[in-house]
Amino acid sequence: MIEFIDVTKVYKDKKVLSNASFKVHDGEFFVLVGASGSGKTTTLKMVNRLIEATSGDIFIDGVKITDLNLRTHRLETGYVLQQIALFPNLTVQENIELIPEMKGWAKEKRLERTKELLNFVHLDPTIYLKRKPSELSGGEQQRIGILRAIAANPKIILMDEPFSALDPISREGLQQLIKQIHHQLQSTVLFVTHDMQEATILGDKIAVMNQGVIQQIDTPENIQQKPANQFVADLFQKHHHHLEDYSTKELQAEIERRGR
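The structure assignment produced for this chain is given below.
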């Protein structure tokens, strides 16, 4: 379990996260949603200590995060970013095997795991193992980025807007994929997005954030039916209508383009 107790982050007199207290239970898919600058990414990066809290405490399985061995903790935590951070000079296989290798897995075990993962995301190992990132589409690169994050069976997976740079068709496919992966691994996932529709599709629980303050934490259904305040209600309504129109149009255009 991940627990934030009264966590605040101040940058140059500006509170980017204000007295955040919440729990993420084991195996939960927990989504932080809000506009740019709402404090979502700051919250996420505190979990693998890329950002340190100004005050308050974070616990993982009852242990204060500052008491954990940093290297071990980061190796146990998968991390997927919007900017697909694959190493361009390494092959697909080498990218996926990075963490297992750092954790001392034997060569045969690493290869077996890599093949299994590639098959799982419908990328034929005989074709993809030796490819370089530059030979992949954006959607394929992001799938490899996800596989790299989950290769060593991390307890926690952090995902920071991983699909926002992709076209709607790739995005929808990857949302379904990440739900399957979560179901199979039963890892605890912390997922950041500015897209309420994506949050609703993926989240067991959603935390709605605004200017560093958590407005509401609940299931997608409860947030929709019982928004805690006007901000949450507006965010849900605006996104819901706007995105449905937008993505249908986008999808139609994309389908037509690909059909040519």
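Interim note for the steering committee: Residues 134 and 188 are 31 Å apart (CA to CA). The first strand starts at residue 2 and ends at 11.
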